[in-house]
Amino acid sequence: MDDIFLNCNEKMKELFTKYSSDPYMFQRLQYHILTILPSTLENESKNHVERVTRNHFLLNEQQIFIQVFLSKHQYYYLPNNSCFYHYDGKNYSIIIEDDIQHELLTTISKDKTLMQWKHKTKINIIKQIKDRNLFTSTPESETFQTVLNVLYPAFFSNKQEAKYFLTIVGDNILKKNSDLIFLIKPKMKKLMGELENIAYYTLGLTNIANNFMTKYHENYDYEKCRLLKINDMISFDIWVDIIKKMGLNLFCVAAHYSNRYTNSDAFIINYGNEDLRNYTFYVKNNSQKDIIQHFCDYSIEQSNSKHLSMNWKNMHYLWKLFIANYSYPNMIYSNTLKGLLSQKFSYDEELDSFPNITSKYLPLTSDFILFWENTITVLGEGEGEEEFEVDEICSLFKKWKQTDFQTVTNTTINENDAVKLISHFFPHVEIVENKYFSNIRCSLWNKMLDIQQSLDAFKLTKKNVEKNVEKIVDTESSLVSLDDIYKFYCNYCSKNKTKIASKRYFEKYVCTSLATHILFDKFISHDWFEN
């Protein structure tokens, strides 16, 4: 301050000295100092105060505008793909910057106060949006419920399992617990593949599912393995379009859960029920010997009888039943399994069997194998194309047990166990979609013969329709639908007390055997009846 005063004083002395010999300029100097300068400084001071006051007012208005705008318009950003996102309280969507600027400038234009700061406000808001990471957003309850309703009960049996899955996905998005391995069923592979694609196109992220594994490998550390349960009967194809539509919502909910619960392990420990906790950490908390003991407790019974023994094939099948029953992955290789069991029980290497042990599950297995070997013929190439649905085989097995006195149990078999048993003991049999056994023939039921006999009866009824009181179809019609013929077939089988084949199989047989008479895929021409 003193320096400024001295500098000004020196300047004044300099000016006075300079113009002291010039009366006019000396008078002007005096006038400017005494009159003009005070007035100018007063105006400068007043204008400065006004500018500061207005600037403060505009800054405050701008801050309020930005706060309200960003509250009403939830925009977010991801720096990795330079992409903007919008959340409307229900759904997340990708939005381009031009659309944000249009909405922003349209809104600013309605506020006359900020018009002169329009450009500055726009830049400020865009900068703030870029600081709002998409994965820090908080979805509304409606979004949570929509995502959970997609996953539960379709994919998971309860909401806890669905939340756990979402937390895992969130961890992967946020790159947490990347060393963990999540063992899943093969049928879940489609879901994870679809989520990988959606994540790439919507978030610019890759490998969000690279730690989901459908098979256990020996180099996996048990301590790092986690189990993820999914419903057995899920048909992913039904849900693929819904998953695509809800993908971005799912990822944002997943990231939120990961942030809220810290990570997937913390979710299980702090929020999972006991059953979910025990299942998830089953591999982590048990050694191979522990797992073998659980298997033996579940499947094996020891005996002093010298006549009892269990061959390795049966033992291996029981292992598959055990892991399937508890929805466990195959976490012990067969050679390792055999070695561990050989250490636990006596093992006859020459007979490849374990003496003095049996299982409560073997009688049913033996009965089914006996049924299969006595009644089923696997067709070779050129021997025809027949197929049986799994439930038909189960029904025939039940019928066979009622008439065959070689059986040792009255227990029936369910469809899942039938598929597992056939795939293990008869691996050469073709199983389609876990629903159909292809290229087999059963001595208990000649499906083709039943259908052919019903077709012959239908043709005869059609020809003699005038003598038949019960009119089956309109005799004047030039076409007969497969639906009408199938109804006749069902009635025919009911009257003759024979089993009824599915409509799918019936139509497949008819369309093959009467190929030259099929019209429009669903009708038989009238000329068939004239042959």
Can you characterise this structure?
This protein starts with a helix and ends with a helix. Helix content is 57%, strand content 10%. By secondary structure, the protein is mostly helical. About 2% of the residues have low confidence. The strands form seven sheets. A three-stranded antiparallel β-sheet has the order 1-2-3. Strands 5-4-6 form a three-stranded parallel β-sheet. The chain has a three-stranded antiparallel β-sheet with strand order 12-14-13.
> What is the β-strand count?
18
C-alpha termini separation:
123 Å
Helix content: 55-70%
The whole-angstrom Rg is 41 Å
Basic shape: elongated
Provide mean pLDDT, rounded: 87
Give the biggest beta sheet: 3 strands, antiparallel
Structure, briefly:
The chain is mainly α and 531 residues long. It has helices at residues 2-19, 23-72, 97-109, 118-130, 141-151, 159-173, 189-203, 236-261, 264-271, 274-280, 282-285, 288-299, 312-325, 334-344, 362-375, 390-403, 415-425, 447-463, 482-496, 503-513, 527-530; strands at 74-78, 83-87, 92-95, 181-183, 212-213, 225-227, 301-302, 309-311, 353-355, 357-358, 376-378, 387-389, 430-432, 436-438, 440-442, 479-481, 518-519, 523-525.
Sequence-ordered SSE layout with sheet pairings:
Blueprint (H helix, E strand, L loop, with lengths): L1 H18 L3 H50 L1 E5 L4 E5 L4 E4 L1 H13 L8 H13 L10 H11 L7 H15 L7 E3 L5 H15 L8 E2 L11 E3 L8 H26 L2 H8 L2 H7 L1 H4 L2 H12 L1 E2 L6 E3 H14 L8 H11 L8 E3 L1 E2 L3 H14 E3 L8 E3 H14 L11 H11 L4 E3 L3 E3 L1 E3 L4 H17 L15 E3 H15 L6 H11 L4 E2 L3 E3 L1 H4 L1
Parallel strand pairs: 4-5, 4-6
Antiparallel strand pairs: 1-2, 2-3, 7-10, 8-9, 11-15, 12-14, 13-14, 16-18, 17-18
Helix pairs in contact: 3-4, 5-8, 6-8, 6-9, 7-8, 13-17, 18-19
